[in-house]
Amino acid sequence: MPSLLSRPLAHWRFDGELRTYQAEALRSIPADPADSAMHVVAPPGSGKTLLGLLLAARVGHRALVLAPSVTIRDQWVRTARDLAHDVDAVSDDPAELKDLTVLTYQRLSVTGDSSPFDELASRQWLDELTASGRTASDAATWLATLSVDNPAQHARGIRSRASALRRRFSRARPDEIARALHPNAIALIDRVVEAGVDTVVLDECHHLLDHWALVVAYLRSRIRASGGTGLLIGLTATLPSPDDETGFDNYSQLLGDVDYEVPTPAVVKEGHLAPYRARVWFTEPVPQEADFIRRSEAQLHELVTQVLSSPDGLGFLVDQLQPTVDDQQTADDSASSSDERARRDIDRALSADFPLATACGSVLRAVAPGHPLAVLLEPSLFGRPSTDDLLQVLARFALDRLLADPDAHPQWRFLKGALADFGLHLTDRGLRRGRDPVESTLAASVAKDHAAVEIIRHELSAADGERVRAVVVTDVVESGNTRGLTGDAAPGVLRIFEMLAADPITAALSPVLLTGEHLRTTATAAHGVADALSRLLGTPVEVKETPGATRRLGARGVSGSGLVAAVSHLVADGTVRLLVGTRGLLGEGWDCPAVNTLVDLTTVATSTATQQLRGRTLRLDPAWPEKVAHNWSVVCLIPPHVSLDDRGEIERLRRRHGHLWGLSADDHSEIVSGLGTVLAAPERALLSRVIGKDRQTSVAALNAAVLAAERSRAQTRADWRIGETLPAREREALAVRSARRRGVVQLVPALTAGTSRTFALSTLASGAALALASGPLALHLPLLGGLGAALGAGALFTLVRRGEDVRRALRLRRDPARVHHLAAVTVARALHSAGRIAALPDEAIAVTAQPLPDGSTRVRLLFEGPPQTRRVLADAVQELFGPVRTPRFVLRVGARERTYLAVPQQIGRRRADAEDFAALWRQTFGGGELIELKGAEGLVVLRAARAQHEAIDSTAPRHSVWC
């Protein structure tokens, strides 16, 4: 067994020039990390392979590289041999391990059909049974019988134990983990350990969520048991989504926090990836789908009317808005009018459960607008009830009023069945979301297929249309979910291909459909494509005649990877200019540098899937050095004249672009994340109107506005300013709107703030000075004269001293950027004092101001610092200037026209921290009263605070920015 102390990779060298971020990563990542893990995030095409090898060579020990595919494995082998300058130092043979060995994860993974966690769970269950007194054979018989007689219960038992095992597997003992592994995997791990491997490089490590993570954890524990360090070097383009809590926890336990991240824009600016632009196309359901949605709308309206406008329903709504009060609260309210008492009860309901109270109030105004309580509800707070509001209130009514009443069981069953039609499962634990038929209708709408055709036609009509090489990607070949859909074809890649093949413009691109089971093209292009593929594959490709505009192609004996490579070659040489497939085949691992246009018709929105899919268009194209990529999302919206809501499509768009960096649609020189990469402020405002059911606009008008604002590929390339270095500062950005006549931050008039104290002290000092001066050698003044002189001197001193404060206050009133900067700095200092964040210099908060046509000013705040610190600070400032909901404290500022600011939750948890914040505020601005929202007075203040307009600018949503 080679010594673990040997360092054969230490002599490897790279003779070329490192990219800026590669050199920076090597400098910043310690060679001997405390957690024995190096974790790097970098986009496809950024040189992760070279960086991973150089990190391993710096340590020097024997290494094992695990890659997700044979293609990627071969790339590692080629690069490693160039560094080693010795072919024999690198191996891809598991039977012949060398100084650096490259294998696929599958080589080291578990074989067989079942999950290793299921096997572990079954073993654990048997151990539990024997521990309770059963014999081993009796326990095995009982468990086997259960799996046959009650398979659902058996599956639940396995699933619950497997879930727990997933959460703790990386901390498990090696012998416990080994029980889940196949003997072949254990034998290979034995050889790896015996070969003296001490470093494990994990390419595309975002896959380490389940059984691969189990194997890596076991391998590392074995290396450590043999005396090694078990250093892990994780490389990925995309972090796994935290939405998968268990998988993300497993991943984090192995690799820890990210040590270095290379943002995609940095690689673009250095010229190693193509510049790109995010785009979006808005459409609405076709008539048949719209009919289904309108029927759903009518069904919901009928359900709400039938249930919530009944006496029981109205009684429930009133009870939610008028909660029972205790004796003290009744005494406090005794002197108030009936309307005032009702308003205070509404305030109490909002404080107890803000979402439920606002939903119930909105529904009450909708179903019984003439109800005495509905008249007291502020329209600004209790607006149009959304679909979610209606469903939430219906479910809560069923749980609170029907479930507990045996006589209401038929109504419970009726409501449960009605809610199921909206993809909601009503149980005794509450409401659980399932497959929403309306959301499914929108996600798989035929309108999206039409949009894909229109997008390709739109791209071809541009000045550089002849350069277009496009790929259209969907989730599946054919979906089995057709509820609410129309036509004979099921949603999926086959349906969209038929539409592209039938359009004369897109059909002229010789489109090809490629999936694991299907290879098709148009009738006119079939023989030409077949001949080209035959030459590339070295085997005949048969054209199979079929009815319609498409033809099937067949290539016997050709592997799937060989076919993908051949079709990709045809895209590169221009024989095929449009490729259609599923993300399983054309997602991660597929490489075709000629592709420059992506039309994403998938429903994925996770960080991993989103970035991997868009990474397909970013490779440099040798045939087009000026390549610019366009990545399109397609969103199907319910039109404003239909009152039914669906947030699924918009939330998917938000989530996708929340994971992506791109050029700002507002300032084309800025790199941002979020919706600001696809929509500028006017288009975001128009989108809000469409979602808000403003019938004065339409989905078509929104899409037209988006297209009118788009920039050409040439303009996009110029906007990227390739060759410039990306600023090494990521910041959180937040926009606040400061009104012309009533600023968000109002100063207590400086003339009154502290004036009495200043006057008293200066008068006393003047009197003392006069008293000393009236001694034997000084003036002799009458008593009244001396008093008048002292008062006059005090007044003069006070006027001079407070005059400067007045001038400062006036300057601040004319400078909203300075006011908001001081407010944010005050929040940062209070958070630091409360122990919530590290200390930040004032310069870590930058502010810009932009006058708006309506006379207000948009103030933009940029927060710099460690990621967690800047997020906490941005959250707090957003709370301060956002709508007042349920804070413990508010700060009342202003003299004639009062403004209420919510004390951020992280500050308001402890009274002492809130008081420190108020003191800092007064020190900065000269005034501000801290109010704890309790009792009758607190409810009155809270009502006034909720009635004021929020200052957060909804047209400039919060985002991250490189600047």
Q: In words, what does this structure look like?
A:
Strand 5, helix 10 and strand 6 form a beta-alpha-beta unit. The protein is built from 39 helices and 27 strands. The chain is globular, with a radius of gyration of 34 Å. With 963 residues, it is an alpha/beta fold. A nine-stranded mixed β-sheet has the order 8-18-17-11-16-12-13-15-14, with helices on both faces. A seven-stranded parallel β-sheet has the order 3-4-2-5-6-1-7. Strands 19-20-27-21-23-22 form a six-stranded antiparallel β-sheet.
Distinctive features:
963 residues, alpha/beta, 9-stranded mixed β-sheet, 7-stranded parallel β-sheet, 39 helices
What's the structural blueprint in terms of helices and strands?
Elements (H helix, E strand, L loop, with lengths): L19 H9 L8 E5 L6 H12 L3 E5 L2 H15 L5 E2 L8 E5 H4 L7 H16 L4 H14 L1 H18 L5 H5 L4 H12 L4 E5 L7 H15 L5 E6 L8 H11 L4 E2 L2 H6 L6 E8 L3 H22 L2 H11 L5 H7 L4 H15 L1 H14 L4 H4 L11 H16 L6 H12 L3 E4 L2 E4 L3 H7 L2 H15 L9 E5 L18 H10 L1 H4 L4 E3 L4 E4 L3 H12 L4 E3 L5 E5 L5 H14 L4 E5 H4 L10 E4 L6 H8 L14 E8 L11 H11 L2 E3 L7 E3 L7 H11 L7 H10 L4 H8 L9 E9 L16 H19 L9 H31 L2 H18 L11 E7 L5 E7 L3 H15 L7 E5 L5 E4 L2 H4 L2 H15 L3 E4 L2 H13 L11 E4 L1
Parallel strand pairs: 1-6, 1-7, 2-4, 2-5, 3-4, 5-6, 8-18, 11-16, 11-17, 12-16, 17-18
Antiparallel strand pairs: 9-10, 12-13, 13-15, 14-15, 19-20, 20-27, 21-23, 21-27, 22-23, 24-25, 24-26
